[in-house]
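Reading is simple: each integer encodes one residue's backbone shape. An example follows:

___
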Amino acid sequence: MSTVFFICVLMLVYVYAGYPLLARLLGGLVRRSVGRAEPGENLPTVTVLIAAFNEADHIETTVRNKLEQDYPADKLDIIVISDESDDGTDAIVTGIGDPRVRLIRQEPRAGKTSGLNLAMPQATGEIIVFSDANSLYAPDTIKNLVAPLADPQVGYVTGRMVYKAPDGSLTGEGCSAYMRYENKLRVWETNLGSIVGVDGGVDAMRREIYRPMNPDQLPDFVQPLTVREQGYRVVYEPRALLYEDALAEADDELRMRVRVGLRAFHALKDKAALLNPFTFGLFAWQLWSHKVLRYMAFLFMAGALASNVILTFVPSFSASWSLVLADQIVFYALALYGHVMSSRGRQPPRLIGLIYYLCVLNLASALAFWQFLQGRKQVTWKPRV
């Protein structure tokens, strides 16, 4: 049983620290550079796709944010796909009155992925930029997203998401720290060749390599993997900034993470060929480490706790196991404390916030995996609130 405990602990260390360290070291050795467009070079045309369902509170601000980008006006247009919205979203979009903005209404409601598939034949830009309905870009974000695509080996680019928590809520703090951790890892993975995960609200790709997806597939996960299957690189551009509010309530964050996790499990199943190291080499190792093992980390956490309990109450084992169990109990007690304080609108210290957010992520993965085993799928979504 002690072997089980140590394997679980070592796997957790590998997932959260070992793999990033190896990615950093190997990335420093490989150092695959990314070509960029030269200043003054002729810029490609861009179509921004924004899928929206009942986004009346955000859609005008989001569209105008894209129209005001530091990018040639005659090379930028926007398509908003309304997924059978019934809150006035459509009227707001048409009321903007800019000929560069088009509205496509999807009926019946079929979800974001179907909406993107519907819009792509009408997109005229050489480069497609994917934005969420509540995503606000820095003024030069689109220009920075497009720049790495001057490299013919690059097919997909993702930017840097910065979460804002106006009230300093716990989940916001944890979420922001998690994104900083992820962004560091993306820098190192880009040095290796391709990154594994993207943000979805600040992405760009070559229009000609877009492939239609199944309605239940997660576009932020599946499309980059499809690009990699075609032999192109997927890279990270930290200068392309997206500002998005973090969810103030932990329950909101948990629901969102369960939805994303469920679709990610289905995506990994659909793209299992990429896990073959004999075909995809380093990228297969990255996908196993960054996604498969990360999403399954809840099993290692549960295994470490369960084996520790057994070792503690079996007389033949050392009493020191009770101290290890006490450490684990303190860890989860701190997470529970974070939950209680968050539900009361109070913010515990940052370390407790990080512990709490880590537990939220793994609880979401566990719930998503259970739904995946049951064969459940989620196609439509509701706006983040």
